[in-house]
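User: I'm writing a tutorial on reading structure tokens. Could you give me a worked example: one chain, its sequence, then its tokens, then a sentence or two explaining what the tokens reveal?
Assistant: Sure. Here is the example chain.
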Amino acid sequence: MRQNKPTNCESCTNYVYDEDYDCYVCLVNLDEDEMARFLAGTNYACPYYRLDDEYGVVRHQN
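And here are its predicted structure tokens:
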């Protein structure tokens, strides 16, 4: 599902801390075209973006 608005990597489930690199990294390997769009500006709408909503699972169980 493609988002119409820009996404914030910091709130995505694919954005995780990597202890080997000592920084946060994206688990998704963007292809060359996707990476070019991401680097070109702030209006990139990542097709892999998923909100890191830890309470969403609890709400869904009710």
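What the tokens reveal: The CA atoms of residues 9 and 15 lie 6 Å apart. The chain has two helices and two strands.
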